Fold:
Amino acid sequence: MAKYLCAVYLQEMAWNGKAKFFMIQAGQWRSSVKNPVENKGGEGADCAWGRRVDGSSFVYKYVYKNNASWMGRAVVLPNIGRNGTLSEQAYQILKKRIIDSTFLPGQLLTEEMLAEQLGISRTPIRAALKQLEHDGLVALRSGRGVEVARVSLRDVQEWFECRLALEPFAAKLAAIRRQPEQMARLGELIADQDRARQDGEYVRYVELDHDFHVALASLAGNSRLVEMIDRLNVQVQRFLILSQTLYQSSLAALSEHESIRAAVELGKPEAAASFMEQHIREVLSRISRGTILD
Structure:
């Protein structure tokens, strides 16, 4: 039987002295309910109607109030399988839920709660949370478990400064060192991203965005560089979803990816580096204009 974890919530925020509830997104879920207490109805008490990106409606059920945060819809966490260690599987599941905003910035996660939902002991959960802390996705809270890392515009700017230092250089090396048989993968990723965009599958879109940047970095022939760019783009996935800008910006980003790919394939290192720098700056600008929860 599937186990459920109340994982999506609206966080009350101060705005000009008045309480305001932020519009949130988790995967393709949205809500703009301003006061859930006054929007009862639907499936039981303390419910509020919301709407998906595709226009269909759904119901948020508010379970309890805690420090001005309202817990919302029940989310199924997949059962742990037999492939890989328990800690690695737990890490991958929780990482995905943080990236796709099922677990939102500031949300408290406890070992006990997660162990119960995943059906495993707390020891592998503890190891998974330590790895997530290393990734910058959670922050330890003494005696309270961990908190999903909060995101501010300053955080975004700092991560993107690192991208600007590394990824144009990686693109330049890729244009110098790439092998013809390696180029097909980049084209496939761009095509897959476009299909995800057309289908409105934006969580899948950002996963493929991450894969494109890591695959391009791998052409540079420097494993350390790949590791750093991989970690940077894990954060970018999260920023893209939280910013709620993908619907408007995804097509432009694909065009930028194609310019980078073409320069690398043609063996033009300076052009590849320039297109990558321009792309990163454009993505930062688009995210900065979006919604970032702090």
Q: What stands out?
A: The chain has three domains: 1-76, 80-149, 153-288.
